């Protein structure tokens, strides 16, 4: 048995591989075996047969998918390059099971009964690039199992029962680019677990039971682009844990138990495009936590416990396209907090405790197409709140406490295609006229959800689609010419004249309009009678023209 | 309170970026791994099963999404997507893999819409109906992929010309009397069709599908039945002509649902061709016979349309993400459509479900039948309909039902057993109910017109 040994010494640097480990390059394939393998290769051309219960394609791809298969068939040709075992009852893989299959490039075990893999079982594959072991009752992988797979690019060991990985398991798979360890029971990882796989591009540790991460764990992974740590039991992140991941573009931390995130955690991740923090227990975020993330396009903070957002938190994340903060406990949005997010297309603030929206709340969100505000406690929306949202396509406001929409509120929404307003206690009185008109005028372009009146009592549960303008008990706002006011007696009382054109606006202003022919002067008396109190306003108007003239009066009482 | 929320949800996900999707062409083993990976990630809402094998022995794997995978829950409609029936039309295959990954991922992320969809619908996804043809096409790859390389199955049969021809029977019945739906198969149908087709037909028999789409490539248009025209002979040459089903308005609406939710299909101008609103009647485009779409409508309760999704039958890998973004919303919205119309239970006086009861809509000469447990689903456009349920040995019942734009209206029927069931079959020929049961709708219609 030939045995080569050499050692590698690397200089210590802040990022990258920084321990002086001695690497053992073991080539433990006996020559006699190699010769035998060659003989098999030659021999197989003369007697090729597909193993029972397997499907063979062009003699190089073999699929074995039968519960009748209890062990790896012995007559697998050495010419095979792809080998898949799916839902078989194979229980173990022995040291010699795959002897001679040196052309194999892809080896896949999914949903078998594999409980153990001998330490040398996978040492036969100098060309193997893709290895998958998924959904097997495998609880242990021995140190050295992957030591002879120099070409391995993708390693998938998922949904098994593995609780621990040997620290040196990946020391020899130096070309590895993708490592997927999702769905095992791994609770901890050694600090130097990834020290040799410096070419790694994607790492998934999703759905394990990881509670702590060693602070140096990711230091060697300077080429890493995707890191999935979702659905573990992380309650905190060590300071500096991601500091070396300069290429990282996607980071998944959702589904952990994080309550806070240290302020500098993301400060080196200038390439980050996607940050998933949903379903944690985050209560607060520091002001500058995202300040380095100038390339971030997707930020999801849903289902946390955020009670407020610090004012400057989104000042630097100007590349954001999607910002999602639904399912938190936000009561208010600081004014202008989104004002630099000119590229955000979707903003999701559903299921918070928001009470009102101010004119400046969505200032600057010029690209916004989707705004979700449903399931809050909104009682009041200022009427200029949507003024920058000319591209908005969808707006959801259902399940709030809105009673009315102020005049002009939806006027900036030229492009809205869907407006969801149901499940609000709409007050269908004259103040509702604006919204009713808006809906009727825009119904060709906008789908509006089915709404019902809550008040007044006689309109309760009346569908908005059936509501007519005259139901709103609004006097019509048409000017009425008051005819034949005699001009001879300028003391004459104008009985009943201006009553019909009076109406009350949503702001509580009372408008009266009338047209009167005035010759000399006119005194206007307005008396407000309320129970026993009577208040009277008196205004005088003089006509300085030499002749009688028509005067239109607009009287506003507020 | 009916919220009518269903139709308004359609824009929810437009710009949501699906998490960690990998866009590459999945060979057979990649496809299998991807489906099993989804199954392992979402074990409580998914199931992977095979409906049969291709000529070369590849499995036709389906991934099912449901809150109770493997079980038909009464009143929960069954939906299916079929991809890659033509081996070289590969976009559907990739989109359906992405869809499966997306549904799982979003379900895990508590996406409200996806969760609701899975809780109310049983979704079956068959990414590849022709895995053998795909391998032939994939060996060539996107570059230099011939128009036909890999289209057929291993025995060089076009699977979309391989179903028993029921259109001819239907057109004959239309003329001379006879049913125009649930047409029986010829006795020797198994011998007539390829293994892939046989697996498909068996699948259709095993599940009471309500709505379906068959994903193709080579154009960008949503195509609805019939595909086969009545071949009008004009001075010696034949030309294709619009061939409408009794459910024409509904089919148009279904096709539009997809085209308008799709990124660009609805514009109509695609692949140097124009289709108004991105939809077309199959026969008016070009007539084909023995296709799967017409077969679904003529033999089963399922309404199927055919989606042509890309100009390039074998798009380059770099184009896949954009295609997914253009189709994702449409794929979801179309599934929603399975909830439009009426549904309900057909039961006897003791509350036991009656299977194979016939549900007819006046004015639409196409009946549906109840499933094994007695539940039925009838897709309908909003409106008011007269609905009749009848079953052998029971008195029929007619009610009026109003369909809204939102979820299906529940219309249950409890049918009274006829007193002399056995005798009535032979003696009671004048019984109106009995006549209604045995005389097919098409014949009825003919007589009355
Ligand atoms: Zn096709």
Query: Span between N and C termini of chain A?
Result: 101 Å
The parts of chain A where pLDDT drops under 50 for at least 5 residues are 1-13, 17-29, 37-46, 476-501
Ligand kinds: zinc ion
Portion in beta strands of chain B: 15-25%
Largest interface: A-B, 53 and 32 residues
Q: What is the annotated CATH architecture of the largest domain in chain A?
A: Alpha-Beta Horseshoe
| Average of per-residue pLDDT values of chain B | 85
The major pleated sheet of chain A works out as: 18 strands, mixed
Count of individual helical segments of chain A: 2
- What name is given to the CATH topology of the largest domain in chain B? Aminopeptidase
| CATH superfamily placement of the largest domain in chain A | Ribonuclease Inhibitor
Major sheet of chain B, described briefly? 8 strands, mixed
CATH class membership of the largest domain in chain B: Alpha Beta
What's the tally of helices of chain B?
Answer: 14
- The general outline of chain A is elongated
Indicate the CATH topology of the largest domain in chain A.
Leucine-rich repeat, LRR (right-handed beta-alpha superhelix)
Q: Would you identify the regions of chain B where 5 or more consecutive residues have pLDDT less than 50?
A: 1-21, 423-449
Give me the Rg of chain B, rounded: 22 Å
The gross shape of chain B turns out to be globular
The oligomeric status of these chains comes to: heterodimer
Subcellular location (chain A): Secreted
GO molecular function (chain A): carboxypeptidase activity
Protein name (chain A): Carboxypeptidase N subunit 2
Organism (chain A): Xenopus tropicalis (Western clawed frog)
